[in-house]
Write a structure and sequence with these properties.
The complex is a heterodimer of chains A (282) and B (306). Chain A is mainly alpha-helical. Chain A has two domains: 57 residues; 208 residues, MetI-like (MetI-like fold), CATH 1.10.3720. Chain A has eleven helices and no strands. Chain B has 306 residues and is an all-alpha fold. The longest helix of chain B is centred in the last third of the chain and has 35 residues. The two termini of chain B are 16 Å apart. At the A-B interface, helix 1, helix 2, helix 5, helix 6 and helix 9 of A face helix 1, helix 6, helix 7, helix 10 and helix 11 of B.
């Protein structure tokens, strides 16, 4: 017991010492060190976790060791891939695209009327703060337990944050810029596509980035209410029931990879589209 | 105030769509019920009616439309049914009864508030450490930001079981989930807030020969308050969602999540809908309280014009 705690503290000390030196060094601003320091921190935590589990003999039904999780991850890749396909690609991505298209359609329709815009902003912002994921049982009843109900839940969840950001973004042009378009003789649609939509892009991508995480949460949590025998939420809830926690952790690793990849992809597109914005300058 | 009319218009439009949708959504159930009650329904058998869409069937049976609003177990309850169920379970029941939504709401809310208190306290402490220690900043901050892109809510079922198997049950596991969901937004927002004073303001304090502790209490902390409230509002709604989801996969017997699950499993849609709306009202109230506190605090601090 004491041995374990002392050695874990020693590992922590070593990791911290390296990071403190790196952070204080002249190279601290370099790209490599900026990536290295969090990597060392994460690795230190993993080693401490592994040592604690092994030396204290913690039962795998409470906390499996990282190596056990990696084992499980490696040995059930086909199953994890099937779950990923069901939940992320069919459920989350379909819903995300549907929600995004609906949000664009409503925003463009409402855009012509200042009256509607002023109503949509507060109502949409209010809806975005509500626990919408609670509609999952209702949608599972209506649309069956396959991915369609998950896509519907995701679409409703991502709709409001995206809508609010589009509507707010479309208002973000100055009178001077709009006047310039008018002096060019530009009509409503030309002004929309050449000035206001591009100017709204930073806002829109902010909404799209928030929505990536929401989409995954919606798709996974909706499966707790009923799903076919495949899917990440299904696997998590049944594995928890069988106390196969290594499987749960493996699914969480998949969710983490999927979440950061999706976010990264949207952020990458944002960089291409809004290269002119001050926040994107290198 | 000038947005009030547009807001009411939007809310009214949503309610209208809801009310109209009730008819086609419930038509098949209503027709089956009407047939059992001996009314004339076209077409006459359930099998034939399956071929119709909800809308088509409504046009074929115009006289049944009022009945779609009065089903006991509708597919889509109408607003007045949900409001009636809520009035029944909130106002008319004893608050300690298992039928009372106030009781279930308190179960969820207590876990939410406890978790939120733990999560924000730890979040603020970590943010203070990050701002004052470079090594901590470089090690922890990327992970705190990355955590916002992953669905950490998926951990919820496991935490309940993990804590259950070491003998901790009831309020605390749910509070832990609420805590870590509100933790990360507070860390990220608070770090941004504590760093918000610009170089000129920090330089001014240096010319006053202020220590780093004095700079913290007199400049950094007050400057971080607007950011802190923004994070609070994100954190409290995340904490509530966490507490509700924590009640789902574990067969909890009390709380909003448990009510939704009970309504789902026992075919009582009104129970699910009432729990859903009660949860939404709770979330709105919590965010509303923080908005009011924010306005009051910022005005007292002179950070916004009254």
């Amino acid at each position: 017991m004491n041995m374990a705690i002392i050695s874990v503290l020693a590992i922590w000390g070593v990791g911290w010492f390296i990071n403190a030196r790196l952070a204080a060094s002249r190279l601290a601003q370099s790209r490599m060190v900026r990536l290295l320091v969090p990597a060392i921190f994460g690795l230190t935590l993993l080693i401490m976790w592994e040592m604690l589990v092994r030396m204290l003999g913690i039962s795998p039904i409470i906390l499996p060791a990282p190596t056990a999780i990696a084992d499980r991850f490696g040995s059930s890749l086909p199953m994890l891939w099937a779950d990923f396909e069901q939940t992320i690609i069919k459920g989350a991505m379909t819903g995300y695209v549907i929600g995004m298209i609906c949000a664009f359609a409503v925003a463009i329709l409402a855009d012509r009327s200042d009256f509607l815009t002023r109503g949509i902003l507060p109502v949409g912002g209010f809806m975005a703060a509500l626990p919408i994921v609670g509609i999952a049982p209702i949608f599972v009843k209506w649309l069956g337990s396959d991915w369609q109900s998950k896509a519907a839940v995701v679409a409703v969840m991502v709709f409001f944050p995206i809508l609010v950001n589009i509507v707010a973004g479309l208002r973000d042009t100055s009178a001077m810029q709009r006047d310039l378009m008018r002096t060019y003789g530009a009509g409503y649609w030309q002004t929309l596509f050449k000035l206001r939509l591009p100017a709204a892009m930073p806002f829109i991508f902010n909404g799209l980035k928030i929505a990536t995480t929401l989409a995954l949460i919606g798709a996974i949590v909706a499966e707790f209410f009923g799903s076919p025998t495949v899917g990440m939420g299904f696997r998590i809830s049944t594995s928890v029931g069988r106390l196969a926690l290594d499987m749960v952790w493996a699914e969480i690793v998949v969710a983490a990879i999927a979440g950061s990849t999706l976010y990264g992809a949207v952020a990458w597109i944002e960089g291409r589209v809004t290269f002119w914005h001050p926040s994107q300058r290198k | 105030m000038k947005s009030l009319v547009p807001i009411l218009t939007i809310v009214g439009a949503i309610l209208l769509i809801w009310v109209l949708a009730v008819v086609p959504m419930n038509m098949h159930l209503t027709a089956d019920q009407a047939q059992r009650d001996g009314l004339v329904v076209t077409p006459a058998t359930p099998a034939e009616r399956q071929a119709y869409s909800g809308l088509g069937l409504s046009f074929a049976n115009l006289e049944l439309i009022p009945l779609t609003y009065g089903l006991d177990r509708p597919r889509l309850p109408s607003p007045h049914q949900v409001a009636g169920e809520m009035w029944d379970t909130i106002a008319l029941r004893n608050v300690t009864s298992r039928q009372s939504l106030v009781y279930h709401g308190w179960v969820t809310l207590s876990a939410t508030l406890l978790g939120f208190a733990i999560g924000t306290t730890l979040g603020i402490l970590l943010a203070v450490g990050i701002v004052h220690n470079r090594a901590m900043d470089m090690s922890v901050m990327p992970w705190a930001i990355a955590s916002q892109t992953i669905p950490i809510l998926a951990l919820a079922p496991m935490i309940i079981v993990m804590m259950g198997s070491i003998g901790i049950q009831g309020l605390l596991p749910k509070a832990v989930i609420s805590a870590y969901l509100s933790f990360f937004p507070v860390v990220v927002g608070m770090v941004k807030g504590l760093r918000s004073p610009d170089a000129m303001q920090m330089d001014l304090l240096r010319t006053y020969y202020a220590s780093s502790a004095q700079a913290f209490w007199k400049l950094r902390l007050p400057a971080s308050v607007p950011y802190l409230f923004a994070s609070f509002k994100i954190g409290i709604s995340a904490a509530l969602v966490g507490a509700i989801v924590a009640e789902l996969p574990t067969g909890a017997r009390a709380g909003f999540g448990a009510r939704m699950l009970v309504g789902d499993q026992y075919g009582q849609p009104l129970v699910t809908w009432a729990a859903l709306f009660a949860a939404a009202i709770t979330a709105a109230a919590l965010v509303g309280i923080f908005t009011a506190m924010e306005r009051l605090t910022l005005r007292r601090m002179g950070m916004v014009q009254a």
